[in-house]
Amino acid sequence: ENKKPKATRHILLIRHSQYNLNGHSDKDRTLTGLGQEQAELTGQRLATLGLKYDVLIHSSMTRAVETANIISKYIPGIQRVSCDLLREGAPIEPDPPINHWKPDSVQYYEDGARIEAAFRRYIHRAETNQLEDTYEIIICHANVIRYFVCRALQFPSEGWLRMGLNHGSITWLTIRPSGRVILRTLGDSGFMPPEKVTRS
Amino acid sequence: EPKKGGWDTNWDRREPAF
């Protein structure tokens, strides 16, 4: 009995907000004005849910860091962790493929291993010593979140590109102590006014 | 072994029985 998990983990995956696509490098790809508004709305939404959040983990890419900076204002005192494994990339060749985005094999090989490592690090049932339910926020990127969803639900990983996520949206995974996984929401952005909703 | 197409209960390598 001591070796059985007892608690539930709730993982809220947030896609970063809209950012400047024209930046030369990652540090130049900062949030747009609308992106900052989206992050404010997501932060307000998370606060309104009234949950006791345990940790805020974010990708080390600039757009995720800026999104985390804004959201964390609404969750004062929350522990923050930056993670390179959560950086955007090409997790696995999608099926069906699309014409306007074709990374080479090396990209899939490198990014795929890294994103899978991120999945194994963050998406699992509670440890045996966890006694209470936890609520963890992970701020990262669309490809990473979609891949996580496919893997968590044991759907074919190649189907990750069949889903779309809005900027600042919330994807909620619940993992029971039994290992059962429930996708409660996928890409929820209903809390944003329609004119504030973007995908690219 | 999970049946083909079935749910793998040890998907996160944390199933106590394993």
Provide an overview of this structure.
The complex is a heterodimer of chains A (200) and B (18). Chain A has a six-stranded mixed beta sheet, with helices on both faces. With 200 residues, chain A is an alpha/beta fold. Chain A is 28% helix and 19% strand. Chain A is built from four helices and six strands. The relative contact order of chain A is 0.23. Chain A is globular and about 55 Å long. In chain A, α1 (33-48) crosses α2. With 18 residues, chain B is mostly loops. Chain B has no helices and no strands. The model of chain B has no long low-confidence stretch (mean pLDDT 84). Classes of the chains: A alpha/beta (200), B little secondary structure (18).
Outline the secondary-structure elements.
The complex is a heterodimer of chains A (200) and B (18).
Chain A (H helix, E strand, L loop, with lengths): L8 E7 L17 H16 L6 E5 L2 H11 L6 E5 L21 H18 L11 E7 L1 H11 L17 E6 L5 E8 L12
Parallel strand pairs in A: 1-4, 2-3, 2-4
Antiparallel strand pairs in A: 1-5, 5-6
Chain B lengths: L18
Question: Care to count the β-strands of chain B?
Answer: 0
Write out the strand line-up for the largest beta sheet of chain A, numbering strands in chain order.
3-2-4-1-5-6
Our count of helices of chain A gives 4
Low-pLDDT segments of chain B: none
Average pLDDT of chain A works out at 97
Residues in β-strands, percent of chain A: 15-25%
Protein chains sharing the most extensive interface: A-B, 9 and 10 residues
**Radius of gyration of chain B, rounded?**
8 Å
SS content category of chain A? alpha/beta
- Give the CA-CA distance, first to last residue of chain B: 11 Å
Give the helix tally of chain B.
0
State the oligomer.
heterodimer
Radius of gyration based on Cα positions of chain A? 17 Å
Query: Beta fraction of the residues of chain B?
Result: under 5%
Mean pLDDT of chain B: 84
Unreliable stretches of chain A: none
Q: What is the approximate shape of chain B?
A: elongated
Shape of chain A: globular
Q: How would you characterize the largest beta sheet of chain B?
A: none
